[in-house]
Amino acid sequence: MSEERIVLNEDDPAAQARIRALSSVTRLRVLRLCAYESRTNKELAELLDVNPGTMLHHVRTLVQTGFLAAEPDRAGAQGAREVPYRATGLSWRTSMPGGSVVLVETFLQQIAGLPPDDLDTSWLGLKINDEHREELANRLYELINEFKERGPDADGRPYSLFTALHPDLNPPAAPR
Known about the structure:
Blueprint: H1 13-21, H2 25-33, E1 39-40, H3 41-48, H4 52-64, E2 68-70, E3 74-75, E4 81-82, E5 84-87, H5 90-93, H6 100-111, H7 130-150
Antiparallel strand pairs: 1-5, 2-5, 3-4
Helix pairs in contact: 2-6, 3-4
């Protein structure tokens, strides 16, 4: 069963906090890293090459807005108490007003350093009416959501998928 998208009311303080939480490339990358594996603040800081204090701020922001949840404490190196965090999936259902730029930047950071053969890209120009554009957008969302709802494959490898459907700003051809 497909979940409805959450459209945030920008006049609601809780919605404003969620919008701000999703406006950070680092926080979006944290959500990706915690999608299928619990990770501690220290692990996240090391993986993203961020100061642990800065990472703690990002983690707390995501916890306070419901995007991350703490799991039971565990003992780390030398018996230190560590709190692992896991993404709740709320970000998948939340609309990001004006969030396209941060998503593109996150995508670019995610693919930085990937061997060219590991990046499967497609780029297509279409000339379609509003009805067909809406149909295409809905079908893409339904397909992506179908795979998301299946849950992770036990023998699976992590992959990311980024799609963008936008008006083509190429000028029309001159009349002949």
